[in-house]
């Protein structure tokens, strides 16, 4: 994104993230653009093919920045550094968010700090995992 864009910033500063984005804004940064909550809702169609839960409920989304120009930067992690489906998840996330009105561009950045852990999952995500026999 350009330096002139206005963003809704979810980072904790200096590129560091505390973990899963749990308090998304519900107000759009500009008229005609989605809010962070709407972006997260769109991302719920994206699933890790190895785990039957969406990336939001897994706690993989660390940040969503939306510019007034309609550019979205998603900061996320994966359950493991060597995840073989990283490119598929990136593509699915980009396509899901591009479907929202007002969005011009989507970039997904993967970060590995803090590392993902089961405690980052939402309660709904944990419930879904238990339904599939996982002990979380």
Explain the layout of strands and helices.
Elements: H1 36-43, E1 61-66, E2 71-76, H2 86-98, E3 105-110, H3 123-131
Parallel strand pairs: 2-3
Antiparallel strand pairs: 1-2
Q: Could you characterize the architecture of this molecule?
A:
This protein has helices spanning 36-43, 86-98, 123-131; strands at residues 61-66, 71-76, 105-110. With 136 residues, it is an alpha+beta fold. The chain starts with 35 loop residues before the first helix and ends in a 5-residue tail after the last helix. Residues 1-15 have low confidence and may be disordered.
Descriptors for this entry?
single chain; alpha+beta; GMP Synthetase, Chain A, domain 3; three-stranded mixed beta sheet; disordered N terminus; MIP18-like; MIP18 family-like domain-containing protein; Fe-S_Maturation_MIP18; FSCA_dom_sf
Short précis:
The N and C termini lie far apart (38 Å). This protein has 136 residues and is of the alpha+beta class.
Number of helices: 3
Structural class: alpha+beta
How many discrete structural domains? 1
Low-confidence stretches: 1-15
Overall, the morphology is globular
CATH architecture: 2-Layer Sandwich
Give the helices and strands as they follow along the chain.
HEEHEH
The main β sheet shows up as: 3 strands, mixed
- Report how far apart the termini are: 38 Å
Q: Which class in CATH terms?
A: Alpha Beta
Protein name: MIP18 family-like domain-containing protein
InterPro entries: Fe-S_Maturation_MIP18, FSCA_dom_sf, MIP18-like
Pfam family, one: FeS_assembly_P
């Amino acid at each position: 994104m350009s330096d002139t864009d206005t963003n809704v910033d979810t980072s904790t500063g200096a590129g560091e993230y505390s973990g899963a984005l749990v308090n998304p804004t519900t107000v759009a940064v500009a008229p005609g653009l989605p809010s962070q909550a709407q972006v997260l809702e769109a991302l719920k169609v994206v699933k890790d093919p190895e785990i039957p839960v969406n990336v939001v409920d897994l706690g993989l989304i660390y940040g969503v920045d939306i510019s007034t120009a309609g550019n979205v930067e998603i900061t996320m992690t994966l359950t493991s550094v060597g995840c073989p489906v990283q490119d598929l998840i990136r593509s699915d996330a980009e396509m899901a968010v591009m479907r929202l009105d007002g969005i011009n561009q989507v970039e997904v950045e993967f970060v590995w700090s803090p590392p993902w852990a089961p405690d980052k999952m939402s309660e709904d995500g944990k419930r879904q995992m238990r339904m599939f026999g996982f002990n979380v």
